[in-house]
Write a structure and sequence with these properties.
The structure holds 2 protein chains of 2 kinds. Chain A is an alpha/beta fold. Chain A is about 35% helix and about 25% strand. Chain A has 19 helices and 20 strands. In chain A, strand 19 and strand 20 (about 525-530) form a beta hairpin. Chain A is globular. The two termini of chain A are about 30 Å apart. Chain B is an all-alpha fold. Chain B contains 12 helices and no strands. Chain B has helices at about 1-15, 15-20, 25-40, 45, 90-125, 125-140, 145-160, 160-195, 200-205, 210-250, 260-265, 275-305. Chain B starts with a helix and ends in a 5-residue tail after the last helix. The chains are: A alpha/beta, B mainly alpha. The interface of A and B includes residues 384, 393 and 458 of A.
């Protein structure tokens, strides 16, 4: 008998227009001492399954069938069962360590409160237990940090505190819902190691919900793949990743950017029948193509940016050096990667290059002209036309009140005021087809599109001015991995055919490896190293780069 | 064209706002009441057989007729008549037209002024923003009735006596509008601060779109939801403010009576037994303001998810 047995679990959300089946007859067993990965793209129902185990399904969702048996107790048989189990036998870790702790209580108070709710201990005993727990999850000086508030901890430390909270009452089942998604790579690997260690030491049963195949392959013993509420495949991690049986799993695995090699393009399983270069770049006819000359298109010299916090203090005491003396250059037609963890200043650099921020010091040269100090609007427009940007968040980057047509018309008309409306329509259709959207999309509003399609609209808008430089700021980090593969393929095709120069910004090393010719690594606003992509991955020269490379979760680790 | 219309209707029918509307009895009821009141007020000539401001149609013999269901009531005057023999119902509807015109104009004036200042303050920031926002703080410390009395007083000083009655309505609109604009300015500035940091604004900047176009084409439509909520509730406030001022005798002149004027005129007869002359305009005013407020509450709940 398995420790946790999920039998034919179905969860429905009755919405206004339709009923959404978030889980359809899912069968999963979890044993003690193993980590089961629950993997799937957004909307696959992986979190729903996790929430169903602790009866946290929000209205209007409800469990419509099946049973969940934990250690012989049927959770849904009696409403009191779950109250007994939650916190006692089941511990929970959420995605965002910023919001899962109460900011106005010290972590000690929160731990003691939780311990005393479930265990009959007096305050002194509870405190001892809490400190021991903090030590166990790897918090140094636990007896001092005990009295600290959540904001005094870093993101990774906070997630450790959350884990210690989940462990308070000696749970036997731990549900971790995307525990490392909000964290940087270096911290992610520490948290995953911690979860692995605790599983072994405490003989826990762990369900690790994630979308990240790298995390799955490095952490889990078995994996369950979900899609649209269906359990697609379940089995030992190695078997599923190396020899997937279902087409969906195959597609999922093949769209994960490999960390150990550079591939030409991602294989999109659903489109296997189509010819390899499927993107029909119609816009090519209109494009005034620049021949690639061997010269630097962008030259960044000693670029610095400080953000002053002069609200309370007059002096620059509180100013933050977001970018500190960074220099690099991008050749025409090249794709250049900018890599770093959160706070490394990579987005700030992008915003200075597209002239959203002005630098505190240093110069940016575009096509041998310094663009940092242009005040003349007309002069600026020349460069606006040539430098365009694609943003991270596909939801906030399109104005929801405008039709797709109007969104794309704006740059066309602005840079070519004399164009006729018939000509604009044709141009828009060509642009949309170039990013693999239908002509009908023009009449629709952004909210009618998925995240990946919205990102395509963003690309179409950026291409409308026929730019030479395309700045892509984490263009795929908000997208599912299969969509990411499609968007990356599209960007590659566009770059090749239109001779674009791309500045590609990402925290995701495997993605950068697939996309870029050269890579610059940033840390805390400073440049660590610049080298050719393959060179960087084979022989990193800087310690920080080495660290990043060893810590990055590798899907290939399963083969060893 | 036809096709486009159809899609617009289907878009409305498909929207969440429509859905929440048909699920809310209060919203439907208040809308029905408001539609009836608006229709009767603006097409009052079609609705009532009497014109209370046409002296030839009035007969002093009809004066002080009580409502039709009471002992001495006449069936042709449903809500009775006032001291000059005017039919109460028609007078109320004519009066509510004035009240609505003043209310709407005042809100539109406040909205244009407030949103214009708030939007630009939020967008440009800096010293300009500080000046505008301190101005709203100052404005908010002056009670609106006091402000309106002040404006009226100044206007009386500037404008000649004969001109004054003609100008009274505009003075009133200005007075009420000027006391309501800070609400709009605050709300639109706050919403602008949120919107201007979104990527679609950055995208337009990068394309090279000018500030004015970004403000009006991109940000303005996205901040209209909270502004409309404030506007609806502001409409009720403006109508009540107008009634208050007219009741105090500084509003519209008695020759073109509004609801407030009617209540004031009827007030004189309250203790001599002719209660209906003041009671019905008052009830009408309450019904009007209450319906607008209920609709405003519903709008706030649906259009502003942050408050849910």
């Amino acid at each position: 008998m398995s420790f946790l047995k999920i039998n034919n679990l179905s969860v429905n959300y009755e919405m206004r227009r339709e009923t959404v089946y978030a889980a359809k007859k899912v069968n999963i067993n979890v044993e003690k001492g193993e980590i089961l990965g629950l993997v799937g793209e957004s909307g696959s129902g992986k979190s729903t399954v996790g929430n169903a185990i602790i009866n946290l399904i929000d209205e209007p969702g409800k469990v419509s069938g099946g049973s969940i048996i934990l250690d012989g107790t049927n959770i849904y048989e009696n409403p009191e069962n779950i109250l007994k189990l939650r916190g006692n036998k089941i511990g929970l870790i959420f995605q965002d360590p910023q919001t899962s702790l109460n900011p106005i209580l010290t972590i000690g108070e929160q731990l003691i409160e939780t311990i005393q709710t479930h265990l009959k201990l007096n305050k002194e005993e509870a405190k001892n237990k809490a400190i021991n727990l903090l030590k166990e999850v790897g918090i140094k000086d636990a007896d001092v940090r005990f009295d600290n508030y959540p904001h005094q901890f870093s993101g990774g430390m906070r997630q450790r505190v959350v884990i210690s909270l989940a462990l308070c009452c000696e749970p036997e089942l731990l549900i971790a819902d995307e525990p490392t998604t909000a964290l940087d790579v270096s911290i992610q690997s520490q948290i995953l190691d911690l979860i692995k260690r605790l599983t072994k030491e405490r003989n826990l049963a762990v369900i690790l919900i994630t979308h990240d195949m790298g995390v799955i392959s490095e952490t889990t013993n078995r994996v369950a793949v979900m899609k649209n509420g269906d359990l697609v495949e379940i089995g030992p991690t190695k078997e599923i990743l190396t020899n997937p049986k279902e087409i969906y799993t195959k597609a999922l695995v093949s769209s994960v950017p490999p960390t150990n090699k550079k591939i030409n393009r991602f294989k999109i399983i659903e489109k296997e029948n189509k010819t390899q270069s499927e993107t029909n770049i119609k816009i090519l006819n209109r494009w005034t193509k620049k021949e690639i000359i061997d010269q630097d298109l962008v030259e960044v010299k000693n670029l610095s940016k400080t953000f002053d916090d002069n609200f309370f203090t007059e002096s620059s005491k509180n100013s933050v050096m977001a970018v500190d003396g960074v220099s690099f250059s991008i050749k025409e037609g090249e794709s250049f990667g900018l890599v770093g963890e959160s706070g490394s200043g990579k987005s700030t650099i992008a915003k200075m290059i597209v002239n959203l921020y002005s630098p505190s010091a240093g110069d940016i040269n575009f096509d041998n002209v310094c663009i940092t100090n242009i005040t003349n609007n007309k002069e600026m427009m020349k460069f606006r036309k040539q430098i365009q940007m694609i943003f991270q968040d596909p939801y906030s980057s399109l104005n929801g009140r405008l039709k797709v047509k109007d969104i794309i018309t704006e740059p066309i008309k602005l840079h070519n005021p004399s164009i006729s409306s018939q000509e604009i329509d044709n141009y828009i259709y060509d642009l949309l087809e170039s990013v693999e959207l239908t002509q009908q999309s023009a009449e629709r509003y952004p909210h009618e599109f998925s995240g990946g399609q919205r990102q395509r609209i963003s690309i179409a808008r950026a291409l409308a001015t026929q730019p030479r430089l395309l700045v892509c700021d984490e263009p795929t980090s908000a997208l599912d991995v299969s969509i990411q593969a499609q968007i990356l393929n599209l960007l590659k095709d566009l770059q090749e055919q239109l001779n674009l120069t791309i500045l590609f910004i990402s925290h995701d090393l495997p993605v950068v490896r697939q996309m870029c010719d050269r890579i610059a690594v940033l840390k805390n606003g400073k440049l660590c190293e610049i080298s050719k992509t393959e060179e960087l991955f084979k022989n990193p020269s800087h310690d920080y780069t080495k660290e990043l490379l060893t810590l990055m979760p590798k899907i290939e680790s399963i083969y060893n | 064209m036809d096709n486009k219309k159809l899609t617009l209707i289907s878009r409305i029918k498909d929207s969440d706002i429509y859905f929440s509307f048909i699920k809310s009895p209060t919203a439907i009821l208040s809308t029905v009441i408001l539609v009836i009141i608006f229709f009767c007020s603006f097409f009052v000539e079609l609705v009532t057989p009497y014109n209370p401001f046409d002296p030839s149609s009035l007969s002093l013999m009809d004066a002080f007729t009580p409502p039709s269901w009471t002992e001495n009531g006449l069936s042709k005057f449903i809500l009775g008549t006032d001291g000059q023999g005017r039919d109460m119902l028609s007078t109320i509807l004519y009066g509510s037209r004035i009240s609505l015109i003043v209310g709407f104009s005042a809100v539109i004036f406040a909205l244009v002024l407030g949103v214009g200042l708030g939007l630009s303050a939020g967008y440009f920031g800096g010293k300009y923003e500080m000046i505008v926002m301190r101005l709203t703080d100052v404005q908010l410390t002056v009670p609106s009735i006091l402000m309106a009395l002040l404006v009226d007083g100044i206007a009386r000083g500037i404008i000649s006596r004969e001109m004054h009655d003609e100008m009274a309505i505009y003075v009133l609109i200005f007075a009420i509008g000027i006391s309501e604009w800070p609400q709009f300015a605050r709300v639109s500035r706050a919403a602008t601060l949120v919107e201007k940091n979104k990527d679609y604004v950055s995208a337009s900047t990068i394309i090279g779109v000018s500030n004015i176009i970004i403000m009006f084409k991109h940000i303005l439509p996205n901040i209209m939801r909270p502004v409309l909520v404030i506007g609806t509730i502001g409409l009720a406030l403006a109508i009540i403010a107008e009634a208050t001022l007219s009741f105090l005798g500084v509003g519209v002149p008695p020759t073109t009576p509004s609801l407030g004027t009617l209540i004031r005129l009827g007030n004189d007869f309250l203790f001599s037994g002719e209660w209906w002359i003041t009671f019905f305009p008052a009830i009408f005013l309450v019904l009007l303001a209450f319906s607008i407020n209920l609709l405003g509450d519903w709008m706030r709940d649906t259009l502003n998810p942050k408050l849910n």
